[in-house]
Amino acid sequence: MGKRILLNSLYDVNNRAQKGHPEIRILLVDSNTGFLRLTSNFLLRSLKDAVISKARNVEAALAQAEEHHPRVILLELSMPDRSGIELISRLREMLPKAGIIVLTTLDADVYRKVALAAGAEEFVAKANLTAELLPAIQKVCGEIRLQTDHRE
What are phi and psi of 149, to 5 degrees? Predict the structure, then answer.
């Protein structure tokens, strides 16, 4: 089974990469701490070598993105301090190669169109998280390695 890491320093990520341990650095952005915890646990159980950082607002997300250079960014559109659409645009400028996936409760075509136009590659409704999130991550980063044993 692959090693899993929740919060890490950039030093730890670079050190692991130098030792030949592939990882998928994921930034999870949502104002709901319960959702952050549950989604982090789901990702750590599902993906081998996942490295997850979390942010509860736009400013924290920008700081985490600058520090960790995630390969995948999962974000909610409805944020308390600023628009998730604005965050997508800023993250796209900052990290043009990162895969941005909107993971939201706002499951309507108008939100999907605006998010994709702002620079997101994928749009997943939170209600469909368990069925659609891993395929969306695979789509934006290519090959992913799944855990073979999902028991906790």
Answer: -125, 110
What does the pLDDT look like over 66-105, one tens digit per residue?
Answer: 999 999 999 999 988 888 999 999 999 999 999 999 999 9
Longest dimension (CA), the chain: 44
CA distance 70 to 14: 12
62-76 b/e (C-beta count within 10 Å ≥ 16 → b): bebbeebbbbbbbbb
Query: Which residues make beta-bridge pairs with 101?
Result: 74, 122
Domains and CATH numbers, the chain: 10-141 (3.40.50.2300)
The answer to whether the beta carbons of residues 27 and 72 sit under 8 Å apart is yes
